[in-house]
Amino acid sequence: MEEINPLEREHSLCVILPAGIEKNITVHGSKPVMDLLVTLCANYHLNPSDYTVEFLSPNKNNISFKPNSPIGLLEAEKILLKPKGTEEKTKKPYMPEATVRLLINYNKSHKTVLRVNPRLPLETVLPAVCDKCEFNVETTVLLRDLQSKEALDLTKTLNDHGLREVFAKDTAAQDSTDCQSKSAGGGNCHNMVKERKQRKRGFFSFFRRRKKKNETNGSVSAPTSPRLGKQVRVRGNSESVSSTNTLPADTPKKRPAPQPPVAV
To answer: Among 55, 61, 66, 174, which has the highest number of CB atoms less than 10 A from its own CB?
Structure first.
C-alpha cells in the first residue's frame, strides 16, 4: 500500500484553547501554520495578533516550525493556542509618571517653568534646568532663593527640600553678571562706557568749537571795525587839532623886523 504524501491529505489535530477547552479539528497538510492561526482565531472570535501557537508531538515534545511551514510536515498531535506576552500582562499596569511644575528663576529677572518628577534627585533634574536656561551643567548651582549663598544638595529630591521653586546660577558667568549689575546701578562699567563716548565726542567737538569760535570772532569784529575806524579818525582829528592849537606855543617867536632907518 502506497503511503500518501502528508501534504496531500487531511490531518486530525486536537486544539487546546486559552481557557483549557479542547477541540478536535481537521486540517489539510498543505496549510501553512500562520493560515491555521488566523483560521482558529476567526472561528473563536480572537485577535490573531494577540495569540501564538505551539505544536506538540505524540511524545509531548515541542515541535519547532516556521510561519510558512506546512502542517503536514510537522507531524503534530496537539496545537496550543496561547496569548502573547502572558508574563508581561501579569505585571502591574503602566502608571504615568507624576510630575510637578517647577518654577526656575535665573539671571535675576528671568523665569521659566519645567515639569519634573519631584521624587528624582536634583542631579538628574539639573541637565534639564540648564538646557532650559542655556547654562553650563558643570558650572551651574541651584539655590533656595536669590539671597542664599549655599547651594542645594543635588543628591536630594525636591520633596526632600520641600521646594517647587529654585534659583539657577551659573558661576562661570558671575563676572559678566556683576558688570551688568554695576551698569544698572551706575557703577564702574557704566562710567567707563560713558567716558569712552565723551572722548569720542570731545575729539570731534574740538573742531566744531574752534570753527564756531572763529565764526563768532569774525561776526563780532565786523560791525566794530567801522566804529574803530571812526575812533581812529576822531583820534587823528583831535591830534591834528591839538597839534594846530599847540603849534604857536611850540614854535619860537620871531623878533619883529627892525624899523627902517628914518632919513634925517
So the answer is: 55
